[in-house]
């Protein structure tokens, strides 16, 4: 049993690779290193440096593989508004290229890294898999199209698939792997604190208990284990739902994260406060009940543990 992890040199992908190996599953990585880091790929893991648009490279990477975890793609929702064609090329055309190569190699199992971005700004208090998709960026739309491609390809060939929709992925399961995204809250806070600067809260007038926005945060190690569970289920020919949300059902506020950062780092700071950013929802939280039922998935880390592992792995902390 060997699985290909596309985007396996990225922050999330590298954790998925480690989770598969810890579970005794061999892996191969393909990544073009546009945002991933070669040093995130563990020693001994076969690594193909290529973009999924390179069909020949994808077919070579698929040799001897029984399934695929597909994480590779352009992931910046805000930037996707300014670069829609690039986003669709990487995320939609790239998926087509991958599925064509899988069909040629008669590989029938795939776990897709989708996104809570398919929901846009949902009105539901707690998002479930029945919440209607309403993507509000080319990134979210491209992820939804990816799910449609899997659905339609499964009608045409014997393809077994599931898509995991998740929200804010945080923390680290290995001090050698960290989130370097300039758009994610945890690395922004780590970066500012490491420079002796003060993080800022945008919006303190939300209709939430402490006035700051509440979102779902999932520890990356928990997320990685969900991919392993889905892969094992597909490999055992178990029927899975087409999509699963990976969420806490409760969420964490921005102020709670700032409080955790203060406790974990020992840096005494009071966050600056500014107005809401346009379009920033007050609350986006998802239920993970279906994933718990079928994949045995749980979000096992507290907010302090999440931030502590992110801070431990942060490369520039004082």
UniProtKB/TrEMBL annotation:
Coiled-coil stretches are none
Q: Name one GO biological process term.
A: galactose catabolic process via UDP-galactose, Leloir pathway
> Example GO molecular function term?
UDP-glucose 4-epimerase activity
Give the E.C. number(s): 5.1.3.2
Reaction catalysed by this enzyme:
UDP-alpha-D-glucose = UDP-alpha-D-galactose
Q: Which cofactor does it need?
A: NAD(+)
Q: Which SUPFAM superfamilies match?
A: NAD(P)-binding Rossmann-fold domains
Record pathway:
Carbohydrate metabolism; galactose metabolism
Keyword vocabulary terms for this entry: Carbohydrate metabolism, Isomerase, NAD
**Which Gene3D superfamilies does UniProt cross-reference here?**
NAD(P)-binding Rossmann-like Domain, UDP-galactose 4-epimerase, domain 1
Q: What Pfam families does its record include?
A: Epimerase (PF01370)
Q: Which residues form the NAD-dependent epimerase/dehydratase domain?
A: 3-247
Q: What is the superkingdom listed in this entry's lineage?
A: Bacteria
Isomerase as a keyword? yes
Q: What class of enzyme is it?
A: isomerase
Alphabetized PANTHER family for the sequence: UDP-ARABINOSE 4-EPIMERASE 1, UDP-GLUCOSE 4-EPIMERASE
The text of the family note is:
Belongs to the NAD(P)-dependent epimerase/dehydratase family.
- Any idea what this protein is called? UDP-glucose 4-epimerase
Q: Which organism was this protein described from?
A: Kribbella capetownensis
- What gene name does this entry carry? galE
